Protein 1
Amino acid sequence: MSSREPGRPSAARWIVLLLMATTLCGTATAEPGAKTPPEFRIAGSPWVGDAPTRIAAELGYFNPPEHDTRTREVIRVEQYDTGKQAFEALLGEEVEFALAAPEPVAIGLLRRTVTSRDPGDDVVILASVTLSNLSHHVVTDRRRGIERPVQLAGRRIGLVLDTSAHHAWDRFAEFHGMASDSVTLVDMPIGELAEGLARGHIDAAVTWDPWVEPITETLGDQAVVFSMRELHAVDWLLVTRREIALARPDITDRVLRGYLRAIDHIYRNPDALHTPPPSNIIWHINLGWSVLSNLDTQFEWLRRRPEFARSYLPKPGQYLEAGPLSRVAPHRVKLPAYIHSPARPAEPGP
């Protein structure tokens, strides 16, 4: 327990990075009278684990020099506050790709299965981009008489429901012997948790970087931070619609290559992050057992809810589409053959 963990980037630095990336993510300017080519949009978020999305956009890796933006589709990044919002944008067909933690993905898939008897396997996971075992924290105010995790019982806990923070809290509460009904969970937008805690609307906040920093800065020496290290791990998933993965291999392959280049750039040039690289983040494109296991864990967690208690739990493998990564980097696909078919060569899209 500490008021501030060493090495955590300041919120101001992450905001600067986000603004830089958003500015540089734009598409090429079309010539007067020219027909604007279709766009493919990737929904990202400010979480440090999503840095490869911002770096790839900033450096043009999704639209390399050999790509003629006057006649071919442009890949553009749009920013959302959370992976949950990004995934919802994918479901709403506002974007073609999204980055999200397994929790909102699993909830979206399972909810569609329950409400419409639709297996929902038109939404597929292409790869895991990031893995972290220390991204979530419980932050509270010492003046509320909270010095130990068990003292959170009977309190109001602010978080974004149906996100990785929600699952992380359940694991945290279970580890510390708190019953699920011993606290009141308050659903709040991620950007309002700091003010909610300061105004006394909640007694503690469950959040992740870069949103932890504004809260601890506001509370100063009165900030109490409980770590969730080893209690919860996050796979950051690249998700799309199956029709895109199958019909536009040129686009999916370009997206994956963009991520591979961005991650290589981050490790070769740590200064690209504008802050020391976090020790709790591993950027690595892969599609393997960790993704299968993580998605299966989410389904089991959701089964505790009344709305899913009698639901048939689908097999996680049906939501994995290994074809694109098998073409781009086959050694990064670690799945049994019965889950995926050999990749076919990519052909140019229409």
Protein 2
Amino acid sequence: MTERPVQRELVGIAIGAGHFGPIQLDSWRRVRGARIEAVCDRNLTAARSAAERFTVPRFGAAVEELVDQVRPDFIDVVTRPESHRELIEFAIDRKLHVLCQKPLAPSLEEAQTLVRRCNDAGVRLMVTEIWRWQPWYRKVRQMITAGEIGQPFHARFVSRRSDGRGHAPFQRQPYFRDMPRLLIYESVIHLIDVVRFLCGRITSVQCLHRQLNPKIAGEDFCLLTLTTAANVTVTIDAHRHGPAQQSQTSEHLVVEGEAGSLELRTDGAILLRSIDGDVRELRTEWPAEGYLGDSCRACLQHFADGLHTGEPFETAGNDNLETLAVVFAAYESAASGSRVTL
């Protein structure tokens, strides 16, 4: 038997030590074939704290200096959207591959330019869309693909969070309060990507959104109706003004097909209902370690594997442009009061 050659461990720099930075650093510790060698943040105290907490050898406030010291293969961008362009353009100049948090850019045009520049430079770009890597959504897709409910015709997502309530909402990410576009741009973008993952290409969107908490600048409630090329109608009902609750999954989902339906409950159970009314409950021991079923680690592993093998990323820059197009079409629909065709 021929032994596989030992792969060189890829080296990266994590940029951003705010709310989500530590979640990704924790996940990187369990990724095969890649490691984080340095943490960068303009707040040097935050960079030092994150490096010490996750045993990362280096830290600093200047990405240029860290790149010169480390000579990395990639950067992991875990910063706010308005900073992404500068960091990605820097990576292009240094020929570094990029993993970048969503949303990729504040406008579709800016995102298209960044993707085109990466493609032209031979820099591989993947957007950190973690939601589709939640193991329950992987299972739901497997069941749909296996034909367990027949051809789907309708799906419904319900998402509730409580962190948008009160006089000082979004305690973990207080900058959310000042964002003129919030819920769809920052949160529902995940579900739009999951819709594409489960139901295929989105062809139209109609959106209603509003602001429930007067202490914020953007919307914190929305209703979206999406149609797909496979003729599936999908509704997304989301707000961050709900009661506090503990749940395994982040949303409640029902997918209806011509041969039955499946329901993903927030306790992690999946109910499969036949067209005759028979009900089967699937209870799976989802991973307890890490973020939301260890989805962050799975996403990072996919990035590392893709760099090693050259296989396409599920959420490569080109792919993510389709998700962003739906996001900005949703705002266009809400402003015009009409359906937007993509």
